[in-house]
Design brief:
Elements: E1 2-7, H1 16-34, E2 40-45, H2 74-83, E3 86-92, H3 100-107, E4 113-118, E5 128-131, E6 139-145, H4 156-166, E7 171-176, H5 188-207, H6 212-218, H7 225-235, H8 248-258, E8 270-276, E9 281-287, E10 292-295, E11 304-308, H9 310-317, H10 323-328, E12 333-336, H11 339-342, H12 344-348, H13 350-363, H14 371-387, H15 392-406, H16 414-433, H17 436-454, H18 461-466, H19 479-506, H20 512-542
Parallel strand pairs: 1-2, 1-3, 3-6, 6-7, 8-11
Antiparallel strand pairs: 4-5, 8-9, 9-10, 11-12
Helix pairs in contact: 1-5, 5-6, 7-8, 14-15, 14-16, 15-16, 16-17, 17-19, 19-20
The structure holds flavin mononucleotide.
C-alpha cells in the first residue's frame, strides 16, 4: 500500500496534527506488516514546497489537457497523488477550514479532473467533474487538530469541502480539539493516551474500518472545557488583567494550578506555596471547591510549602524525573501538610485521572486486598487458643477455611494464603502434640519471620495492602513509600521474633505475668508507632532532615 501524507501545517514536523497522523500511520503500517503486506510512506510538507496559486486560465483543460501551465512542485505532487493508494491530509484548522497553502494545493489539482459537467450520485452540491484518471480505489483520511476545546462544530466547512472532493462518507476523519496541548510535555500522560487511540484507529483502519468504540474515544475531550481553557489562557504567558508578559515561573505555576481538580476538595481549602529557591520567587495556589487561583503577593497562609529549584520542578512536571525519587534525593523540600504530596494525582491529575481511577476500581471484579484477611488467620489462632486449648485448633481450622468466604469481596494475596496455611499447620501441630505452649511460641516466631522475611522481597507485608491507597503498583517505585514500609515490616518482624524468644525463656519463671503483660502491650505500642511513623517518616524526609 502506498501512503501519501500531505502535511498542511506550516510548522512542518513540529505540527500537532502530524503527531496524530504519524500515530495513525504507525498503527496502520504495523498491522499491514503483521499480515505480511508491504507499505510505503511518503510525506510532503506543503510549507517546504513551492506551489504557486492557480491562475484560473484553464490551460490544464484546454491548451494542454491534464498539464498545468505553471512549472513548480505541483507537478511532483500530482504524480505522488496518482502513486498513492491512501492519501492522509494532516492539517491544522485555520479559520474553520484548511490553511491557505493547503487550499492552494487542492486548487491546483484541477488538471486531475475533466472539464465536462457531470452529475453526482451522492447528492452533494449542484454538479461535478469526473476524474481524468482512475481514482476509484483511492482512500482518504483527514487528520487535524484545532485550537478550541472541542472539534465539534468547527469542521463543518472542511467536511463540506471534502464531501465535494472525495464524495460523502468516502473519507475517514480524526479531528481533535485542544490541539496545542500535544506540544506540552507536562501533559504527555493524557496526550500520549490519546495518541495510542489514534494508533489503534490506524490498526483498525488497516483491517477495514475504525471501530465505533475507538471513534467515540477519539471524540472525548483531552481535558474538561474549564481545565483546558484555564491552561490555554495561562499558556500565552500574558497577564489577563494587565496584558503584560509574565515571568516564566508564574506562567508555569498558573498551568499547574489549571490542572487542579475541584472534585478532589475534601471540605478543606488548601494553599500550596511554590517557592522557587534559585529564582527567589514564591507563588501560592489557593485550592477551593470552585477551582484554583494563583496568588502572587504571598498573602495566604500555606498548608503545604514546596521549596525547589525551578528546573527541578519543571523536570518533574515533564516526567523527566519522578517526584518521589527527587524528594528522596533531597532535590526539593516539603513542609506542612504532606497529604497533598501523597495524593498529588488526585489533586492535580486532571479530572479524567480521578474518574478513570474510580472506573478502574469499580470495574474490577474484586476490591483490593485488606490486611484484615491476613490478620484474621493469626488473631483467630491466638484468641481461640487462649479461650479453649482443646477447641482452639479446631476453631482456627474452621475460621481459616471460612476466611476466603468472609473476605470474598477482596482479592486474596500471597500473605493471606501463607497466614491461613501457617495457622492451619500450627493448629494441626497443637492437635497432634497437645502442646499449646509450643504452638503459641511457634506462631509468634512464624508471624515475625513472615514480616521480617518480606523485607528481603520486592514487597514487604504492609506494602502489599496499603499500596492501593498510594497509586497501586506505582507505589512500589516510590522510594519513600518503600522505605517506610520496609522499616515498619522489619519492626513487626523483630518484635514478634523477640516475643517468641522472651515468651519461651521467661514463661516457666516468676516473670510469667510480665510476659503476658508485655505480649499484650508491645503489639499495641507497635500499632500506635506504625500509625505515627507512616505519616512522620515521609514528612521528615520531605522536610530535608534525613541525611
Ligand atoms: C491563523 C490561524 C487560524 C486558526 N483558526 C482556528 C479555528 O478556526 N478554529 C480553531 O479551533 N483553531 C484555530 N487555530 C488553532 C490551530 O488550529 C491549532 O493551534 C492547531 O493545533 C495547530 O496545529 P498544527 O500544530 O498541526 O499546525 C488557528 C490557528 C492559526 C494560526
Amino acid at each position: 500500500m502506498n501512503i501519501l501524507v500531505i502535511n498542511g501545517s506550516p510548522k512542518g514536523d513540529k505540527s500537532n496534527s502530524l503527531r496524530l497522523a504519524n500515530a495513525f500511520i504507525k498503527g496502520l503500517c504495523e498491522e499491514k506488516k503483521r499480515v505480511k503486506l508491504s507499505t510505503e510512506v511518503e510525506q510532503l510538507d506543503v510549507a517546504k514546497l513551492h506551489i504557486e496559486g492557480c491562475k484560473g486560465c484553464f490551460a490544464c483543460w484546454k491548451a494542454t489537457p491534464g498539464k498545468c501551465c505553471i512549472k513548480d512542485d505541483m507537478t511532483m505532487v500530482l504524480q505522488k497523488i496518482l502513486w498513492a493508494d491512501l492519501i492522509v491530509y494532516s492539517f491544522p484548522l485555520y479559520y474553520f477550514n484548511v490553511p491557505g497553502t493547503l487550499k492552494n494545493l487542492i486548487d491546483r489539482q484541477l488538471p486531475m479532473v475533466l472539464p465536462f459537467m457531470s452529475e453526482r450520485e451522492d447528492g452533494v452540491g449542484s454538479g461535478s467533474h469526473d476524474a481524468r484518471y482512475d481514482m476509484s480505489g483511492k482512500k482518504y483520511v483527514l487528520i487535524s487538530t484545532c485550537g478550541f476545546y472541542s472539534s465539534k462544530g468547527n469542521y463543518d466547512s472542511v467536511c463540506q469541502m471534502f464531501d465535494h472532493i472525495c464524495g460523502k462518507e468516502k473519507y475517514e476523519t480524526i479531528f481533535c480539539g485542544q490541539g496545542e496541548l500535544f506540544r506540552v510535555k507536562e501533559l504527555h500522560g493524557r496526550t500520549d493516551e490519546y495518541l495510542r487511540q489514534v494508533e489503534k484507529a490506524g490498526t483498525e483502519y488497516a483491517c477495514g474500518k475504525i471501530e465505533e468504540d475507538t471513534k467515540s474515544k477519539l471524540e472525548e475531550l483531552l481535558f474538561p472545557k474549564e481545565v483546558f481553557e484555564r491552561m490555554a489562557d495561562a499558556s500565552w504567558g500574558v497577564s489577563k488583567e494587565s496584558g503584560e508578559k509574565e515571568a516564566e515561573s508564574l506562567v508555569f505555576t498558573r498551568q499547574m494550578a489549571a490542572l487542579y481538580n475541584p472534585k478532589s476538595h475534601d471540605g478543606k481549602d488548601r494553599v500550596l506555596e511554590m517557592c522557587y529557591t534559585d529564582l527567589g520567587q514564591t507563588y501560592q495556589i489557593l485550592m477551593t471547591t470552585t477551582g484554583s487561583k494563583v496568588v502572587t503577593d504571598g498573602s495566604l497562609k500555606y498548608t503545604t510549602r514546596i521549596e525547589t529549584p525551578y528546573d527541578v520542578w519543571v523536570s518533574i512536571a515533564q516526567n523527566e524525573i519522578r517526584g518521589d525519587e527527587a524528594l528522596m534525593k533531597q532535590m526539593y523540600k516539603v513542609s506542612g501538610d504532606f497529604d497533598l504530596m501523597i495524593n498529588w494525582n488526585k489533586y492535580f491529575g486532571g479530572e479524567e485521572a480521578v474518574e478513570e481511577k474510580q472506573t478502574a476500581v469499580s470495574n474490577k471484579a474484586k476490591k483490593p486486598p485488606v490486611m484484615t484477611t491476613m490478620l484474621l488467620a493469626w488473631i483467630s489462632f491466638w484468641v481461640a487458643m487462649s479461650v479453649n486449648e482443646q477447641m482452639g485448633p479446631l476453631v482456627t481450622l474452621a475460621v481459616g477455611a471460612c476466611i476466603p468466604l468472609f473476605m470474598h469481596k477482596h482479592e486474596i494475596v500471597w500473605f493471606d494464603k501463607l497466614s491461613i496455611a501457617a495457622t492451619a499447620l500450627l493448629s494441626i501441630l497443637v492437635l497432634v502434640t497437645e502442646n499449646t505452649f509450643l504452638g503459641i511460641i511457634l506462631s509468634y516466631f512464624l508471624f515475625g519471620v513472615m514480616w521480617l522475611g518480606s523485607c528481603f522481597t520486592k514487597e514487604p507485608v504492609c506494602a502489599a495492602y496499603v499500596k492501593y491507597d498510594y497509586n497501586g503498583e506505582d507505589a512500589l517505585n516510590n522510594p519513600i513509600f518503600m522505605k517506610t514500609n520496609y522499616i515498619i515490616a522489619a519492626g513487626w518482624g523483630i518484635l514478634y521474633i523477640a516475643m517468641a524468644v522472651w515468651t519461651y525463656l521467661l514463661s516457666g519463671t516468676s516473670l510469667v505475668q510480665m510476659v503476658v503483660l508485655l505480649n499484650n502491650i508491645m503489639p499495641a505500642f507497635m500499632g500506635i508507632f506504625t500509625v505515627w511513623f507512616q505519616k512522620w517518616y515521609p514528612a521528615w524526609v520531605a522536610g530535608g532532615k534525613a541525611k
